[in-house]
Amino acid sequence: MTIPVMKPKLAKFEMAEKYLREIDQNRVFTNYGPLVKQVEFRYADYLGVKPENVVALVNATLAIQGCVQISKIQKWAIPNFTFAATAHAVIVAGKELQLVEVNGSDWKMNLEDLNVSNLGIIPVMPFGSPVNIEDYALWDHVVVDAAASLGSTLTNVDKLKPDQFIVYSLHATKVLGAGEGSIIICGSEENAKLLRAWANFGFMETRESSFLGTNAKMTEFAAAYALAALDHKDAEEIEWTKVLSHKKKLMEEIGMLNVSDLYPGFRPYWIFQIQDNTKSLVENLNKNGIGNRTWWSAPISNMPAFSQIEIVGGKSISLELSTRLIGLPMWRDLSLNTVEKIAEIVNLSIE
């Protein structure tokens, strides 16, 4: 039987039961119900921001779309090496997309060649990397795609500008997962109200659409599991840290640490950057029943849906990374013996 790359683990029913019973009692299932309000309040405390600036929505893709759509900026730059959802969000929001080369050192968008004026940026935090909002201080319009970064550090959030946002995912494959959902930190209370309205058909205190929106509200059921995850966040962090620390120790011993091993915090990934013999490694992993994937297997610019989009800075690094980053099994109850087996096969495959 193949060991899967990911094996999501949400809060058990017993952990979420009290919240599910509240849903039964309240008979409120969606439309910004009481549990969603609890999620926003508790995540504000967890992230160190004001509750009125936190919005919980149905998923991170629609969250990014909403942040972009309510912005007055028309053109948005994203890294060429990222998940396709980020690109879809901009285009579906009706805005212009620009693709930007990434840095080989940290796999993040290269900001040096970008025009600061009249441009919004969506820097992606690859594989759960930490967020430092000061990295984007030159831009007024920023949506940080921090989908997998809830277990990583958040720095200088007090310097968030009014038209800047940070988007986290509560997808089942992420840390503190709720099955599906997203948490958005908004730079202003006004934009938080606009985002909530956008996610409710553009309704602003009436049932008439003040502007174009959609239905992107988090359900009370997702909120129940989000709250249960927060109740047990310390235990989850211990589980993740145990497996990730063992993996890091083994990779350090065989001289194969990479960028993602050095990020502080915890995240649901074992990303291995291979320099050569990719085919040999994949064959050996498959032969030994170890799941794997080339994580983002093509730059955004090479996907048919986005082939006509403008590119800044070329795409050679994005092309290289798309063939060199291999995802290996990583989940929070993965046995340490299995981690050792995977590391041994990796080591043997590239000697």
List the helices and strands and how they pair.
Layout: H1 13-26, H2 34-47, E1 54-57, H3 60-69, E2 75-79, H4 84-92, E3 96-100, E4 120-121, E5 131-132, E6 142-145, E7 154-155, E8 164-169, E9 182-186, H5 189-198, H6 220-231, H7 233-253, H8 259-262, E10 270-273, H9 278-287, E11 293-294, E12 310-312, H10 316-324, E13 325-328, H11 336-350
Parallel strand pairs: 2-3, 2-4, 3-12, 5-7, 6-8
Antiparallel strand pairs: 1-9, 8-9, 10-13, 11-13
Helix pairs in contact: 1-6, 2-6, 3-4, 7-11, 9-11
Describe the structure.
This protein is α/β, with parallel strands linked by helices. It has two domains: 219 residues, Aspartate Aminotransferase, domain 2; 118 residues, Aspartate Aminotransferase, domain 1 (Alpha-Beta Complex), CATH 3.90.1150. It is 36% helix and 14% strand. It has eleven helices and 13 strands. The strands form four sheets. Strands 1-9-8-6 form a four-stranded mixed sheet, with helices on both faces. The longest helix is centred in the C-terminal third of the chain and has 21 residues. The relative contact order is 0.18. The model has no long low-confidence stretch (mean pLDDT 95).
